[in-house]
């Protein structure tokens, strides 16, 4: 067991206003975003039939610590692992352990690092062995929904514009957007204002301004949007047991668009 990372929650608490970060701050976010992306790239070849989610968690923790990053989830609100591993009908916050991955599973790995106080938060889908066409379609639609949402990130647009295009794309595919979890402001605080909804209407919500940093992390279900949290207090599953997928990036608003801090150096963000 590793020690809980020291987080200065006295100095950096959640604010109600949306913070604006400067160029030096963006450099910090870039470094944190790169490390989380490299960790998610590193793990790809290990996500195969026979491996346990606990082994994947160990590999990512070691990799992150070796490169000077702190695992932000370790010790966060009593969470005892480095990453979340959400398999099949698990929507998010699946806890790594003895579960052995098997051919045909789909799994989301969600990792957050802290480097020099800055947070990088990203998650991707991984296909275990050969997956069926329905699972593949779910992963594709979730990835496309995230990237369409990020195309809306530019000064003058609103958070509602992001949610609107995500919801439209998902529902056009006859899938559903989870409402019970959302993206979040991020910087020196892990989960800051605003709540970034993955559904909504054009023009609603706060206006995007250069310097804002947040995550977009849609969760998409093949069935109904409803979720429940299991008795472990973390694992969120679809109520109807349908498959669920999620993709997450940490981004910043620039003068004319978006910078994706957690972009994959190896080009592996979208699974094949
Ligand atoms: N990484 C998750 C997010 O996207 C948060 C996980 S918190 C944990 O916001 F404690 F469950 F790890
Ligand atoms: Co995350
Ligand atoms: Co997040």
From TrEMBL:
GO MF annotation: an example: metalloaminopeptidase activity
EC number(s) reported in the record: 3.4.11.18
Gene Ontology terms describing biological process: proteolysis
Domain Peptidase M24, chain residue ranges per copy: 27-255
Alphabetic keyword roster: Aminopeptidase, Hydrolase, Metal-binding, Protease
Cofactor, free-text remark: Binds 2 divalent metal cations per subunit. Has a high-affinity and a low affinity metal-binding site. The true nature of the physiological cofactor is under debate. The enzyme is active with cobalt, zinc, manganese or divalent iron ions. Most likely, methionine aminopeptidases function as mononuclear Fe(2+)-metalloproteases under physiological conditions, and the catalytically relevant metal-binding site has been assigned to the histidine-containing high-affinity site.
Residue positions binding a divalent metal cation 2: 121, 184, 217, 248
Keyword ATP-binding attached: no
InterPro entries: Creatinase/aminopeptidase-like (IPR036005), Pept_M24 (IPR000994), Pept_M24_MAP (IPR001714), Pept_M24A_MAP1 (IPR002467)
Pfam families: Peptidase_M24
Annotated positions binding a divalent metal cation 1: 110, 121, 248
Catalytic activity: Release of N-terminal amino acids, preferentially methionine, from peptides and arylamides
Stored SUPFAM superfamilies: Creatinase/aminopeptidase
Classification via Gene3D superfamilies: Creatinase/methionine aminopeptidase superfamily (3.90.230.10)
Enzyme class (EC, first level): hydrolase
GO cellular component: cytosol
Binding site for substrate: 93, 191
Cofactor: Co(2+); Zn(2+); Mn(2+); Fe(2+)
Function: Removes the N-terminal methionine from nascent proteins. The N-terminal methionine is often cleaved when the second residue in the primary sequence is small and uncharged (Met-Ala-, Cys, Gly, Pro, Ser, Thr, or Val). Requires deformylation of the N(alpha)-formylated initiator methionine before it can be hydrolyzed.
Subunit structure: Monomer.
Family of the protein in this entry: Belongs to the peptidase M24A family. Methionine aminopeptidase type 1 subfamily.
Protein name, per record: Methionine aminopeptidase
Organism: Brevundimonas goettingensis
Source lineage: Bacteria, Pseudomonadati, Pseudomonadota, Alphaproteobacteria, Caulobacterales
Gene: map
